[in-house]
């Protein structure tokens, strides 16, 4: 049933659309979670290196997640006073002139564009991209993918009217409004210094002269830039009928999901490190100045005049899910608790194993792969799980150490993602990074950040700093000196082995193609 506006609209809805799972949560005005819903979206690989999903299925999953969240909270959609959406960045969501998908969405995990990257690395694009946009492109970057389609399937671009990101597609389905925000656009299309669209970026990638529907160039097919907390539209009749939200409910532009997580964690001031340990190892800090380096992405933050330095790789807590699936451990709370207990029982003494958590990506380049080293016949499953958990944390440290070279980091960091649910794992972060680790209340910090941006957009808060005051810390982990020494030695070996394996990784990748 479609909700209609009336009565007290005193709640917030936040949506976090990841690459495989969409989460929706209902929050009160202070950001306390009242109900959550999730829905998975199928990922397809029709060819090697292609990672895609159907745009309509992404919308259907979002509708299901919103419905589940309203049901879990026990509220009608009319109670929602504002909606915020964050989503995975990079990849491509292409619409035609009628607002329909041109083709399946390409996710950020797609690696088809390796030939484009090879050519760009060999020429002037690489260094110029870093200086102009604040980062170098990678296989899943919109710039790389657009250049790949221009080279291999130009008909796709000929039919494209709008180049969107995931959250922009979902907001369009809710409101009919086309827009994006600077945090998303800064992945490829904006100047790192002006934080606005940069035509020279399109020229750099060979995209500036591409034609399109009605003779439009690619610059004309980029959506309007609106602030992340600006009201970009209102839930229309179709959006209301699908979701149960009230027609007329304000929907803000939203942001990249990592920005949303920083907002949800209250890590919005320069120097406060926020860590996301999920599919990706995300290590990020807000900066008041432009600082570029190939080891991180200098993206526009949700607040104008600030940047989010993100040092990332696809090498974090998803390793434990791989382990659990490969070795038949149930994906239940009891299953995870068993693995955590076994790792805790094996914590005494020095690290026995080196584990590189590079199943899907690494801070050491595209050819690095995952491996256990030092395994002996007397090692138990607990030893292996301990090694895996430590390896993930040490991979985060590679990124954090890079940020430490150029940013004045606070002596405390905030952790979210799957690893934050484990006290043992969270303590490893404190010990390995020599930082006090704080874990905030709530299970979906990205959705919380989306909701707080919505609250900011409708005037329920006056600033990001004010929204940060709503964060409630439920657990703190202080570094243990004895464990610090153990993990410092483990980190030395982790890095040394990675450096030694570099030539072998390259050779193996060339020989096996994997």
UniProtKB/TrEMBL annotation:
Annotated Pfam families: FGGY_C, FGGY_N
Molecular function, one GO term: kinase activity
Family, as annotated: Belongs to the FGGY kinase family.
Superkingdom, natural source: Bacteria
SUPFAM superfamilies, A to Z: Actin-like ATPase domain
Protein name in UniProt: L-xylulokinase
Calcium recorded as keyword: no
Residues in Carbohydrate kinase FGGY C-terminal domain copies: 275-456
Limits of the Carbohydrate kinase FGGY N-terminal domain: 12-264
Gene Ontology annotations of biological process type: carbohydrate metabolic process
InterPro entries on file: ATPase_NBD, Carb_kinase_FGGY, FGGY_C, FGGY_Carb_Kinase, FGGY_N
Keywords for the protein's UniProt record, in alphabetical order: Kinase, Transferase
Keyword Transferase: yes
């Amino acid at each position: 049933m479609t909700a209609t506006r009336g009565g007290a609209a005193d709640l917030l809805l936040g949506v976090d659309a990841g690459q495989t799972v969409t989460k929706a949560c209902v929050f009160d005005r202070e950001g306390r979670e009242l109900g959550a819903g999730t829905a998975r979206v199928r990922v397809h690989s029709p060819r090697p290196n292609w990672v895609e999903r159907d745009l309509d299925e992404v919308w259907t999953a979002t509708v299901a997640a919103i419905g589940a969240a309203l049901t879990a909270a026990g509220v009608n959609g009319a109670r929602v006073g504002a909606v915020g959406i964050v989503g995975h960045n990079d990849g491509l969501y292409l619409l035609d002139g009628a607002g329909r998908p041109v083709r399946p969405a390409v996710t950020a995990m797609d690696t088809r564009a390796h030939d484009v990257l090879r050519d760009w690395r060999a020429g002037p694009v690489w260094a110029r991209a870093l200086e102009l946009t604040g980062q170098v492109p990678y296989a899943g970057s919109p710039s790389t993918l657009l250049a790949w389609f221009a080279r291999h399937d130009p008909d796709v671009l000929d039919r494209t009217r709008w180049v969107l990101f995931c959250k922009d597609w979902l907001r369009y389905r809710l409101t009919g409004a086309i827009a994006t925000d600077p945090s998303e656009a800064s992945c490829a299309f904006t100047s790192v210094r002006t934080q606005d669209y940069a035509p020279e970026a399109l020229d750099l990638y060979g995209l500036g002269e591409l034609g399109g529907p009605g003779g439009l160039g690619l610059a004309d097919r980029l959506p309007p830039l609106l602030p992340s907390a600006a009201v970009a539209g209102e839930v229309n009749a179709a959006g209301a009928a699908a979701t149960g939200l009230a027609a007329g409910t304000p929907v803000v532009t939203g942001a990249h999901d990592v920005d949303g997580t920083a907002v949800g964690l209250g890590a919005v001031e320069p120097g406060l490190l926020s860590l996301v340990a999920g599919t990706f190892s995300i290590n990020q800090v807000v900066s008041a100045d432009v600082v570029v380096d190939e080891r991180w992405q200098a993206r526009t933050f949700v607040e104008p005049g600030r940047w989010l330095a993100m040092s990332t790789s696809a090498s974090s807590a998803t390793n434990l899910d791989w382990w659990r699936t490969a070795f038949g451990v149930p994906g239940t709370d009891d299953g995870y608790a068993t693995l955590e207990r076994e790792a805790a029982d094996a914590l005494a003494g020095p690290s026995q194993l080196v584990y590189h958590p590079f199943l899907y990506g690494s801070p050491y380049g595209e050819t690095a792969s995952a491996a256990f080293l030092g395994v002996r016949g007397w090692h138990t499953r607990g030893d292996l799980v301990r090694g895996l958990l430590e390896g993930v944390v040490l991979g985060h440290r590679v990124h954090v150490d890079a940020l430490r070279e150029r940013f004045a980091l606070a002596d405390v960091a905030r952790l979210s993602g799957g690893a934050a649910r484990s006290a043992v794992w969270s303590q490893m972060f404190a010990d390995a990074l020599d930082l006090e680790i704080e874990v905030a209340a709530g299970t979906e910090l990205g959705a919380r950040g989306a909701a707080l941006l919505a609250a900011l957009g409708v005037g329920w808060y006056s600033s990001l700093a004010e929204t940060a005051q709503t964060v409630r810390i439920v657990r703190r982990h202080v570094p243990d000196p004895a464990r610090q020494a153990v993990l410092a030695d483990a980190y030395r070996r982790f890095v040394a082995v990675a450096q030694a394996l570099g030539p072998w990784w390259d050779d193996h990748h060339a020989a096996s193609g994997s």
